[in-house]
Amino acid sequence: MALMFPRLARNFVKNGYFPTDEPTLERALGALAPADGPKCILDPCAGEGVAIAEAAHALGREQVEAFAVEYDAERAAHARRLVDRCIHGDLMDTLISRQTFGLLWLNPPYGDLSKDANGNVGYQGQGRARLEKLFYQRALPLLQYGGVLVFIVPSYVLDAELVGWLTRHLADLRIYRAVETQFKQVVVFGRRVRQRDQASDSVKAVRGLLLQIGQGYVEAEELPLEWPFLPYSVPTSPVEPEHFYRVTMEPEQFADEVGRLQGLWPAIDTHLGAAQQSLRPPARALSHWHLALALAAGAISGVVKSKAGRVLVVKGDTHKEKALQTEYTERDDGSVAETRILTDKFVPVIRAWDMTPSSPTRGEVLTIR
Fold first, then answer.
1. Is the pTM of this model over 0.85?
2. Which of 135, 137, 190, 329 has the fewest other C-beta atoms within 10 Å?
3. How does pLDDT run across 177-202, given as a tens digit for each residue?
């Protein structure tokens, strides 16, 4: 598996998993508004799928297709009942089409990345290696340009590196403190744009505010009960994701898929039906030429009973032999030239397993040429 660290978030009380609290979820959804048309939305760390399902209903369920990814099997099974498509697996082990989602609801696992012999696998950055950053890097390309990001992380994760990414990748950035304060979470809203410089005064001001909140010098305002600004419009999605699946599978998942698809067994009559049918005898006795062809094709096989009661299990086959012919020619000077000619010869062979009761050769394999 590609998951390198469990959900920690200093939250061992809930076994490393905590959903967005209901007041924060309700108020955050109040900041969103749907565009007219079909939309695809994604939660790549979906938990039980409640947040993305509520987002789908808030945006108009009949025009929204909700997608989810969840690592835990039990939570993924629950999320699958609430969303349209759900992957049970690690986001790092998935293949998902880029720029196909109008809303990215990202509440990633919290904690430092563990290291192996190759360092922090998958993380591309110079600052402190955190799971929040890793999931941001992996998930942001899935959001279409003009799409809305809702990013829920602990405030102390907002270091210079992450803030730099946010201000380059997103416009209309706003940050608020979550209603539940136990885990010091903040909710960052933004609209994805193509990378821009950070020279404008507005960008510098937002960057400074995010850094101060991250360093603990300033506390973000609480997420308002009623959204006071123009809502973030979740755009329509041009196409549904072409790819949305897990790359590898656990043995249990593979067994489930085999049970669901059943391989080729449902089509056994189509693929193997001819082999299951009994062969009709020929209209007349086979000539030696026809017999050789039937043997070469393996058509002569099975149990054969003679009128005398002998029982043989036969299998026809053909192998190639070389016939040697030597010719002698006298040259003009009186010497003799020897020419050897090798000719391929196909020899039909029947091997028979004698199963005749009380036969002296019972159980022996006989060769019939």
1. no
2. 329
3. 999 888 899 999 999 998 876 668 88
